[in-house]
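By convention, the token line describes the chain's fold. To illustrate:
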Amino acid sequence: MATVMVRDETATGRAIAQWPLAGLPERISARELVRLRVREEVARFNAEQAEHFRGLVQPTGTEATLNGYRVTRGRRLDWERQAEAACDAFARNGFVLLVGDRQIEDLDEEIDLRSDADIAFVRLVALVGG
């Protein structure tokens, strides 16, 4: 089993958050890595029942704020729905997945976590205007 360091970054490379993700297989598809990351963040949110969800993608029916996404008090999120939304966001270039020093371009790409234990999710913000 492998443990990786997951980091959220802005497009300029500034780290927003970082945490270890443990118990992963040594080889994993990018899709499964995204799904496991989302499952973990939703499980943490549901256990804490915080007012804001600071996840990879915005849950439906929430408001974007500076602190994340405002969720109605007591609402539990569905990790599978969030994981599906994250995979869709990846396909629409909503975020970039960096593993080690390379960009993952296909969710079906296999990742060797024995050699690439540094994972960055770079959120992209759509430009307004133009």
